[in-house]
Amino acid sequence: MKKEFTLQLSPEEAYDPELFKSTLLKKAGLSLDESEAYARQTRRSIDARGRAIKVNVQAELFIKETPTPLLDHHPTYGNVSNSDQIIIVGAGPAGLFAALRAIELGVKPILIERGKDVRARRRDLAAINKEHIVNPDSNYCFGEGGAGTYSDGKLYTRSKKRGDIRRIMEILVAHGATEEILVDAHPHIGTNKLPKLVADLRQTILDHGGEIHFETRVVDFILDRDQIIGVKTLLGDIFKGKGVILATGHSARDIFELLHQKKILIEAKPFALGVRIEHSQNLIDRIQYHCEVDRGPYLPASSYSLVQQADYKGKQRGVFSFCMCPGGFIVPAATAPGELVVNGMSPSRRDSRFANSGMVVAVELEDLPEYRKYGPLAAMHFQAEIERKAWVAGGQTQTAPAQRMVDFVNKKVSSSLLDTSYQPGLNSVEMRDFLPEFISHRMAFAFKVFGQKMKGYLTNEAQLIGLESRTSSPVRIPRDKESFEHTEIKGLYPCGEGAGYAGGIVSAAMDGERCAEYLIAKYINS
Questions:
Q1: Phi and psi of 390, rounded to 5°?
Q2: Helices (H), 340-472
Q3: Which residues contact residue 225 at a Cβ distance below 8 angstroms, ignoring those fewer than 6 apart?
Q4: In this structure, which of 157, 217, 363, 516 has its CB flanked by the most CB atoms within 10 Å?
Q5: Could you tell me the pLDDT band of residue 256, with boundaries at 50, 70 and 90?
Q6: What mean pLDDT do residues 393-418 have?
């Protein structure tokens, strides 16, 4: 017998497995010593709107019956060693899932990645953290698994139209993620667990005849009139296939430059730019969970989401939190020497004493009149210039410029800074020295409003750490809405975050699958 429940539980009832089971048995009117009972949650979300925190749970109780598997999706991968092949540039989530989908459809993927494999990347991350050395091909953004692997691994997406979210989640579970990601409303794998999962995805691709080439940078596209037939690498190797999926991520500026140089249509795209803001996790917990001391043993580290319209010279722009990392760390995310970029991440346990979030301002193309000379690369050049200014402000190392929150609002250089999770260290500055006025003015206004929405949020016990500038791609590579093919170049499938069509691991993975499907349907199975 199987029974289903929709419940509102206390944190202890929801997160203590034994108490949860006994609560479910009581609801079912069964004895607590029922030996042949299996209880599980299928959906869980926290409701922190009231003084008493509740957890909304959908659950199943199986009595004298074998539980049905949570995993429904079991893809079949044949050997594609001798099959028609496609080229995939970039081994982030879009590229990896495009490769898996290609194998599922009987096509051989050749995956080309400028960075190193996920394990070898660690040495370069240690170098940027400890020695301030930036490897332009291997860093927090470039390498196997893409930016999400070592900078968090959040799986929440609102992108319902792009594909089957559950399918993506189940493939991740099949490769090592816990089943918890199928249950939590805002699932998260964690930076500490993603590397092994990514390595397992790679092994599936290799075991079934796909190819992966690491430390292989694409430097040219091979065109036959208006059709792409392959790519050329830095070492002169040429790879040809039935089509090319371009999934290089939001930081591959050399690819944007190459597209522009080859007169392949690209467009400047709005994005957002700002800072990381770091509070103590305990403070955010006390605000969000209405607790006096701490969140207790059952509730997870709390998060927040903030947005406010802010005016500057008669123009409204959104100021919003981005990629909030409870119990997390701030990391250096530059992709070239001479620039400073920060990002946030959380380990799976989210047990750091710090909470950080991007706090960014929408940047529209009309805000950048002096960059129009760069055409479709206008927003990219603006982004790069602010990153260079932030590097100078930090002291021309990976030490990040920083300022306490109230000091920033009051335009005062902080006489001292707080402890931080940012390993390369901080330098006290006036953040307006490198932030444009249309950014800083709107942020200062929004912080005051946020302090009213979340009492205690606006405090000098929090600090701004800059620069958060890689929120999304500053370039869009246009494609047909129906076929996903580039609007002018046949066989070219712009894909994922770098092309302007995704905003995280799951949406990028779904986009990779769709691009593989459309390419294969048109050029191999037609």
A1: -65, -35
A2: 378-394, 405-409, 437-453
A3: none
A4: 516
A5: very high
A6: 98
CA–CA distance, 136 with 139 (Å, rounded to integer): 7
What are 178's two structure tokens? 């816990």
Residue 428's beta-bridge partner residues? 402
Q: What is the tens place of the pLDDT at every residue in 115-157?
A: 999 999 999 999 999 999 999 999 999 999 998 887 666 776 6
Determine the pLDDT at residue 367: 97
Q: What is the pLDDT of residue 190?
A: 78
Chain Cα centroid distance, residue 305: 16
Under 8 Å CB-to-CB from 446, ≥6 apart: which residues? 306, 308, 310, 319, 359
Whole-number Å distance between alpha carbons of 428 and 438: 21
Mean of all residue pLDDT scores within the chain: 94
Enter the DSSP assignment of 163.
Answer: S
How many whole angstroms separate alpha carbon 128 and alpha carbon 122? 10
Number of Cβ within 10 Å of residue 10's Cβ equals 15
Q: Are 357 and 201 in contact (CB under 8 A)?
A: no
- 3-class DSSP assignment, residue 93: helix
Alpha helices in 79-193 (DSSP H): 93-104, 121-130, 147-150, 165-174
Helix boundaries (H) for 269-377: 281-289
The identity of residue 479, as a single letter, is R
Contacts for 227 with CB less than 8 Å, ≥ 6 apart: 489, 490, 491
The tokens describing 155, both together, are: 């799986």
What is the Cα–Cα distance from 48 to 19, expressed in whole angstroms?
21
- In angstroms, the Cα distances linking 26 to 20, 36, 43, 63, 224 are 10, 15, 20, 13, 70
pLDDT tens-digit map of 243-255: 999 999 999 999 9
pLDDT at 329 over 70: yes
Residue 467: asked if its preceding bond is cis (omega within 30°), the reply is yes
Q: Smallest Cα–Cα separation from 446: which of 317, 338, 332, 273? A: 317
Measured in degrees and rounded to the nearest 5, phi and psi for residue 228 equal -90, 135
Single out the residue of 70, 59, 52, 58 nearest to residue 299, CA to CA.
Answer: 52
Spatial distance between the Cα atoms of 459 and 456, rounded to a whole number of angstroms = 6
Q: How far is CA 298 from the centre of its chain?
A: 26
End-to-end CA distance of the chain: 48
* Spatial CA neighbour of 201 closest among 335, 111, 141: 111
Q: Are 148 and 499 in contact (CB under 8 A)?
A: no
C-beta separation of 6 from 28 below 8 A: no
